[in-house]
Amino acid sequence: MKRKRLGVAAALAALASVSAAGGASAADAGFVAVKGTRFVRHGQPYYIAGTNLWYGGYLGAPGAVGRRARLVKELDRLQALGINNVRVLAVSEKTAMKSAVSPATTSAPGQYDEQLLQGLDFLLAELGKRDMTAVLYLNNFWQWSGGMTQYLNWFTGSPAHDPNVSKDYERFMAGNARFYTNDKAQLEYRQVIARIVKRRNSVTGQAYGDDPAIMAWQLANEPRPGNSQATPAEKTVYIKWIADTARYIRGLDAKHMVSSGSEGLAGSAQDAQLYIDAHRAPDIAYLTYHLWPTNWGWFDPKQPATTWDGMMDKSLRYLNQHVDYAKQLGKPIVLEEFGLNRDAGSFDIRSSTAVRDRFYGAVFDLVQQRASAGDPVAGWNFWAWGGAGRAANADYWWKPGNDFVGDPPQEEQGLYSVFDSDAASLKLIGDAARRLHALDGKPGAR
User: Fold this and answer.
1) Which residue in 343, 379, 362 sits closest to 428, CA to CA?
2) E strands of 110-260, at which residues?
3) Phi/psi of residue 272, each to 5°?
4) Which long-range contacts does 100-106 make (Cβ < 8 Å, 24+ apart)?
5) Which residues is 49 bridged to in the sheet?
6) DSSP assignment of 29-49, as one string?
């Protein structure tokens, strides 16, 4: 029988009509869920002491790309620190941009690298063995995994704009916002979402939708409405995209939470109402925010003595503001990215980390304080775990075949990574994890 072809608009409408009925309660079988302004698991409070391991699916891949033995060791080390959650890139798009990772999960619309998908399977299987969970993000506003930039390249034919080359991030962000209104890009994005969310794990045989090792699906890494001058119309489009996409994911999988991946005010054109409205969507389970003092011009790692106080004032205010937004909405919030440079801005793994450790300590203390006070703080994920990875090149830039570390290919390898040799940082993280886990009555590090 010849199947009738649907137009793009009709196809989007058909995808949007998927029903969420029939799913078991998220509280069943160890799924992380929201109860009031808290995460719960097995009926008990669940706090996130986590890290970013964006490359986890890459390490898990079979064959030449993967490093499964390394992944197992990394997860063992993280578990020993008391880390119970990792934030991971679920899908990447092949691009000609030099500042992007390769290979990619999708080489072209509808064309998937099964080995990389099996890498995600392996990662989830290993997390399940350790009773750890993952947040899986399904797209990227930034170009380092292809992301929205590559979707637009596929469906508009416009050259993929690499801001690492042009240094024009305002132009890049304004252009990337076209993704939200491109029907063909949105149709492909939803087909990718369905491909991942409805996948069956090749290692365990379990459907992703039934896997409690997945804590949440995330729309994208750091989606933005446009650049710093985003218009009211662009903001309205962005809010609707978040609500509609979250509803679509929940229609495919009613057991798992959905989050936005937002940086907070910094990713919302400094518009508090936009940030609040974007997270008001009923299918967005919790708020997210990120903290990047150096990237935002608050701190100069080469002049720490003169820029520290101002940076910390801004950082603590930023952290507290977002917890207060969560209180306003009555939803939990996760600080899912924060980082600072090694001393003097060095990328060298042998350099000291005293200033970064001081920053981490202040962040951990504030989050702990607000959580202990009963505020809707669900935990933290530091950026990022470099583990046993090492920069391979004298200029610290990543090339295909090099180790993966916490810093993606758009950044120098060693910029923000925490390595397994950073003894002082590891002790600090382990202590913070134990304090946070004490709030839910669970042990931290072994």
Assistant:
1) 362
2) 111-112, 133-137, 214-218, 257-259
3) -60, -40
4) 100/143, 100/144, 100/145, 100/146, 100/409, 100/410, 101/55, 101/58, 101/144, 101/145, 101/398, 101/408, 101/409, 102/400, 103/65, 103/400, 104/145, 104/146, 106/146, 106/192
5) 380
6) GG--EEETTEEEETTEE--EE
CA atoms within 13 A on the CB side of 319: 29
Query: CB of 355 within 8 A of CB of 343?
Result: yes
Q: Which of 8, 82, 164, 112 is nearest to 436 (CA)?
A: 82
The one-letter code for the residue type at 182 is N
What is the amino acid identity at position 291? L
Per-residue pLDDT reduced to its tens digit, 249-308 = 999 999 999 999 999 999 999 999 999 999 999 999 999 999 999 999 999 999 999 999
How far is the C-alpha of 325 from the C-alpha of 8, rounded, in Å?
Answer: 37
Residue 122 burial (CB count, 10 A): 23
Whose tokens are 């809707």? That residue is: 376
Please report the domains of the chain, with CATH numbers, ordered by start residue.
43-438 (3.20.20.80)
pLDDT tens-digit map of 32-82: 999 999 999 999 999 999 999 999 999 999 988 899 999 999 999 999 999
Q: Which amino acid is at 414?
A: G
For 117, half-sphere exposure in the C-beta direction (CA atoms, 13 angstrom radius) is 19
Residue 106 CA to residue 263 CA, distance in Å, equals: 26
Tell me how far apart the alpha carbons of residues 256 and 434 are, in angstroms, rounded to a whole number. 26
Contact between 84 and 50 (Cβ < 8 Å): yes
Q: What is the C-alpha separation between 361 and 211, in angstroms, rounded?
A: 33
Q: Scanning the structure block, which residue is given the tokens 């010849």?
A: 2
Calculate the alpha carbon distances from 338 to 143, 215, 406 in Å. 20, 20, 12
DSSP 8-state assignment for residue 300 = -
Q: Which residues of 392-412 are buried (b: 16+ CB within 10 A; e: fewer)?
A: eeeebbbeeeebbbbbbbbbb
Q: Quote the CA–CA distance of 48 and 285 in Å, as a whole number.
A: 15
Smallest CA-to-CA distance from 116 within 31, 185, 192 is with: 192
